[in-house]
Amino acid sequence: LSLIWLCLFRFADYGCMLEIRDVKFFPDGRSVVDTVGVRRFRVLSHGQRDGYNTANIEYLEDKKAEGAEYEDLVRIHDSVYDQAVSWFTCLKDNMKAQILNHFGPMPGKEREPQSNPSGPAWYWWLLAVLPLENRAQLAILAMTSLKDRLIAIRRVLIFVTRKRPR
């Protein structure tokens, strides 16, 4: 969710359309909105209308890899997925519980990494739970190469794994 909420407070160059799955209202007027990102976009222009922020956007889709490039993509995809599972498995129980309560379990690995125009669901789950600044998340959100995003996340996983106290 941190990827998406950034766009509500200031205009960013990129964002994600949300599907609202559930809303919980509290007696004090607060509410919790459970959402899932469904489609990335780039902001072409923005303004205001009737007091609401508005924007003209174009949707983003990943460039498809083929042939030897596709085989390389699958190898990197599988490797980074395994690295992500290993990282999550090694977290302390209280940290795992917090992540699972807030984001739910990590989606499984898709057989075909390019089946979704924005890439695999497990990747976006991981991006949301990793300790990254909003700027870094937004830069990754904007990438239209799954391979480049996987390489970026691999670097983050290497960093947080080395940083972890033993």
UniProtKB/TrEMBL annotation:
<feature type="domain" description="Lon N-terminal">
    <location>
        <begin position="1"/>
        <end position="161"/>
    </location>
</feature>
<feature type="signal peptide">
    <location>
        <begin position="1"/>
        <end position="17"/>
    </location>
</feature>
<dbReference type="InterPro" id="IPR003111">
    <property type="entry name" value="Lon_prtase_N"/>
</dbReference>
<dbReference type="GO" id="GO:0061630">
    <property type="term" value="F:ubiquitin protein ligase activity"/>
</dbReference>
<dbReference type="InterPro" id="IPR015947">
    <property type="entry name" value="PUA-like_sf"/>
</dbReference>
<protein>
    <submittedName>
        <fullName>LON peptidase N-terminal domain and ring finger 2</fullName>
    </submittedName>
</protein>
<dbReference type="InterPro" id="IPR046336">
    <property type="entry name" value="Lon_prtase_N_sf"/>
</dbReference>
<dbReference type="Pfam" id="PF02190">
    <property type="entry name" value="LON_substr_bdg"/>
</dbReference>
<keyword id="KW-0732">Signal</keyword>
